[in-house]
Structure formats: C-alpha cells, structure tokens
Amino acid sequence: MTSRRFLRVLIPGVLIVSAVLVIRLLADDPTINQDGLTFAGEELARALDRPGDGPGMRVIRSFTDPGGVPCRAFLGEAVSGIACRKDAGWHLRVARSGIDVSDPAAVAHAERALLRSAEQMEVQ
Fold first, then answer.
1. I need a surface site. Which of 5, 38, 44, 107 has the fewest CB within 10 A?
2. How many Cα atoms sit within 13 Å of 97 on the Cβ side?
3. What residue spans define the domains of the chain?
4. From CA 85, how far away is CA 37, in angstroms rounded?
5. DSSP structural state of residue 99
C-alpha cells in the first residue's frame, strides 16, 4: 500500500473516531460531580422530580430518610441507584451501572438490591 493510499484511508477513519468522541463528550451525562458528591444530571433530575415510567428509567420506590429527606430508588439504562434531595439537586447516595430495562432477569436482580438498600435507608 502506498503512503498516499494509506493516508486516504487513515484520515477519514481518524475523523470519524474524533467525531464520535466529541458527540459522546457533549452528550448529557446522567450524573455530575460537585464538591466530591455525585448528583443527577439534568435529564435524570427531571425524571426524579416527576417519578413515573419514562423512556429508559423507572422509579421503583419513593421514601423518606431518617432526616426527613425525600429519596427515590430508580432503575435506568444509563445509571441505576438511590438519589435523595439535597439543596437544589438529587444526590446519588447509591449509584450502580445502568441495566437493560428490557431484560426481566437484570431488572429483577437490580430491583431487589436497590430495594434492600432503600429499606436500610428509610425511616423505621
């Protein structure tokens, strides 16, 4: 392969990979870090403010912690966990990898684990 031919193949490939990386970096991250804490990103926060079954996310339990703070356990494709209201946002006290919400076994496993954690955090 000549060097010109190699460059004709290499340059478009590099441009495509670069474009994909830029898009991923600019995409709405489900979480943000602030002062060493993990908070729900904008889209996740909206879903937690209005619990219900949205695309790719489902609140499985709403409860209050011992300090009277409202919390929600949720399952999502991007992230799953337990978030509690803190100031103007939702602090993720428990964060797990997202799950395939169309996989009943994965949903059942993650739901059991999060509900156990929620019970331990809930007002007794």
1. 5
2. 4
3. 29-121
4. 13
5. -
pLDDT value at residue 71: 96
Q: Which residue has the tokens 């509690």?
A: 84
Token match 């919400």: residue?
A: 101
Q: What is the mean pLDDT of residues 47-73?
A: 87
Tell me the residue type at 84.
Answer: C
For 39, the token pair is 């908070």
119 vs 16: CA distance, rounded Å: 47
Burial of 83 (0-12, 13-18, 19+ CB in 10 A): buried
Query: 123 is written with which tokens?
Result: 């007002």
Q: Which residue has the tokens 């496993």?
A: 109
Distance CA 11, CA 42 (A): 36
